[in-house]
Amino acid sequence: MMLNWANWLLPAAMSAIAWTDRRKLMQAAGDVEAAQLALLRSIVAGNRETRFGRDHNFSSVTDWATFRQSVPIQTHASLEPYITEQIETAQTALVASPLVSLARTSGTTGPTKDIPMTAAGLDAVRDAQRQLALTLYRDTGFFDGKIMALFGSHVEGRLENGLAYGSSSGQANRNTSWLLQSKYAVPRAVAAIGDYDLKYYLYALFGMLEKNVTGIATANPSSICRLAEIANERREDLVADLAAADITRHGPLPTTALAEQISKACLDRPARVAELAAILKGDRDVRIEDLWPNLRAAAVWTGGSCAVALEKLRDSAPSGTRLVELGYRASEFIGSINIDAERNLCIPALHQTVFEFVERKTWEAGTADFTPMSKLQSGSNYYVFVTTTSGLYRYDINDVIQVTGIHGSCPAIGFLQKGRGVTSITGEKLYVHQAVEAVSSVRQRLGTALEFCLLLADEATASYTAYIEVVDPDSGLTTAFATELDSSLVNANIEYSEKRRSGRLRALQAVLVKPGTGEAIKRHAIAAGQRESQYKPPCLEYASKFGFDLDPWLVSGPSR
């Protein structure tokens, strides 16, 4: 009955979103420079009396030139003292508005970083959710039946002063309307489960009990593929749980309601339970289309390093399932809004975030030559810097975006990749310094005389491989090295840990290379034009972009 009520109310709700949120965005897109300058002035004026505002002379800021003169490019490290002061004292150190929560993610200066979130920041998240819903409603059959939303917990813990921290995906789901949540096939309490294996098992179990799932939303397409993998890996468990209508044997649950909900769903749907048993007992691999034959659309990231997982999802999903770009989003800000699911046309969130762009080659050459948004060129790549209503000012997130087209006078943008010094196969965001520190600690623990170590991120296999050069090659070293390094990275990076636990990121492998490999790589780089004085041994790279042939230098195959 609730589903029928939701379907009846959706047209009116979507019309309201179109008249308010979408109308405001499109008005801003009509004159991007005026809209961005107005938002910048509003943010600066509202935060003049913060300690950051006084330290950076906000009172003198009137335009882009005076803003850039007053505020240098910022990182989380440079903002952290202000963030910490505001958290600990509740005084307006960074932003005039009170902090209502923190988005916790991995960072460049340590295992985690806390991103401040104000009420206005949450409004931006809520706006993005509503606008995505409108696009999915208009252009796909996403809401025709039930929907699945895979997300983290918005409250993973609290600081001593009670301020909550959690995942950005949890924050987004928290701000989803009750109307859309009434269509969820999986209870929201599943997101609060800390055991990632159990969490995804329950996502699969609850989800497959609802045959008429027409929409799935999650950032990484690999998360959806993981549901089919669980159906194949745990067939016997799933059949037994469906038959018994009981999940209590799997360990502690965040609420007893989950056990009651699964029991009721199984008992109320005997025909579906029997159908699932037949699918799971079959002799071929279970695919997404077997579990959800009516799937119309999946809202996921389609850019960056998601290409391999995206094709895997496309092959597994029902024919005709539309893969819709979720939009450029980060824990720190909302980057873009998808306004056309057929073309995956995403324009910057002009009314919520202030953007600055520097052409990629220019920034990597050490020059901060900013390009106005109206002058961005289709097909070109840019580093992006943002100013937000939650207290990030000229924030360098180390992201490279690509201009995918022009909508009127407004550029359409898409995430291309992390910038220098970061790899991310499925959202783990592994930084060079984390890799260096992990390798160093493993070398010390194993007592290995390590000459060279290169960590390559392979999107095709969703895994990392460490190529190690040692003084005395010993093939028996690779297994221990791989195990220790994987463990060190899990401890150093919470998002690497999450992806490893959920199975989206496979176990790290290690390969021995011949003595002299490191030197050969250096000579190759110098021959290609790099100055010897500027050469730094590569530590972390993408396998697809590493331009040196390692095959002739291998001593052993990957550890298993």
Compose a concise summary of this entry.
This protein has 20 helices and 21 strands. By secondary structure, the protein is of the alpha/beta class.
Tell me about this structure.
There is one protein chain. The chain has 560 residues and is α/β, with parallel strands linked by helices. It has three domains: 2-12 and 120-325, no CATH class; 31-93 and 354-387 and 391-420, no CATH class; 422-553. The chain contains 20 helices and 21 strands. A five-stranded antiparallel sheet has the order 12-11-13-14-15. Strands 2-1-5-4 form a four-stranded mixed sheet. Strand 9 and strand 10 (345-348) form a beta hairpin. Helix 1 (2-30) packs across helix 6 (119-139). The chain is globular. The model has no long low-confidence stretch (mean pLDDT 90).
